[in-house]
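Work Package 3 (structural annotation) set out to generate three-dimensional models for the target panel prioritized at the project kickoff. During this period the team completed the workflow that converts sequence records into discrete structure tokens, so that structures can be stored uniformly alongside our sequence database. As a representative example, we reproduce one entry of 465 residues exactly as it appears in the project archive.
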Amino acid sequence: MTKNEGVTDNKLWGGRFREKTDKIVDSFNASISYDRRLYSQDIAGSKAHCRMMAKQKIISGEEASQILAALSEIENEMDRGEFSFHEAYEDIHSAVEKALIEKIGILGEKLHTGRSRNDQVALDLRLYVREAIEKVNLLIREMQKVLTDLAEKNIDLVLPGYTHLQRAQPVLLAHHLLAYVEMLKRDRQRLQGNLVRVNVLPLGSAALAGATFKLDRDMVAKELGFGTISDNSMDAVSDRDFVLDFLFAASTLMMHLSRLSEEIVIWSTQEFNFIRLPDELCTGSSIMPQKKNPDLPELIRGKTGRVYGHLMALLTTMKGLPLTYNKDMQEDKESLFDAVDTVEQCLMVMTRLLKKLSFNKEVMKKAIDKGYLVATDLADYLVGRGLTFRKAHQIVGEMVLYGIGQKKEFNQFSLDEMNRFSKEIENNVYAWLDPAQCVERRNLPGGTASERVKKSIKKAKREIG
């Protein structure tokens, strides 16, 4: 036993220290309570590193076989929940290495040759984020499918489109739903861009300056499915841009889910009553027996701020850090893990809710018949009769004011009443005042006409796959 052995609790870095580590340092410094969820990524990286060292003759083939077998045993124990992640382990890297040494003795100490926990954790996080992106992308795709199916099944429903939460113009419900399909498409594109930047191997950067051993980094990259290797060892160990990329993409995705949640909450009120939410996905009140509360979309709306907070927390952590690795960066994991869990859960909940909701067609029909939603079309009609749009806008505005006073919609005006405002108005104007025809007149790419929306549905199906 060396002089210091046992004094520092057999820390992997204990050789430098004479005094036993204070317990408060152990508890405050440790990350094993949460980074243990990276065990599969850590072991995958260790296996690839081991195989590469055998190829490079840094260790023998027999040594590599023993290490690989022991790592598989450790991973199986962790998979089954049989591994004890006790507080003595500082982090997942130390836990795996100590477990390896317990299984195969001093040979296990060779695994850390040519690497540092700095490039290990960067590797583990990249593997984790890559997997998270793939899973979130699949969940987004499933939600897009449900929205597209809803649009196709309800292609004949018309409802008010809103600006400033005021009734504006009639649109197809399908067109409205496809707007969220477009948002989710951009979310997937953002994540795909994130994936390109994630898919860079940092292992081989060691602590910050690279390793002295002849490591075959390209081999490790190929084994782990990375598209390329990092070009600068200092940047590789201190970079968390890929985590920030994910948190930004997650925040934008949550914003889109929150907007949809807000509409579901509003549409399910008695004041709107556009949709019916299923009983099994709602809750009640502890005091008011009549209540049926849209808790799920409300929670999604609320959890959006939580994900935003994780983005801001890591941005704030990273803003003042000098190169290279600093312990502050340990704070990246809990934010990342919670953001991933939150986004995945919200996508699953929203998709389930969308599958179950139904629409109140008659209520929507009544809504488009009131509020002068055809005003723009009436102005366009007057433009077709030779007026400038500004003049037409003024005339229709005056007609709205008159209609409010008389409690009449445009289609309830007599032709004589209309002619008080413009002699250009003829009997054919009434065809322009049908909300369904207002929808169909917008037959241009990106418009709400049924022909265009049907094409958009087909396109969405092709893109979603």
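Residues 1-8 have pLDDT under 50 and may be disordered.
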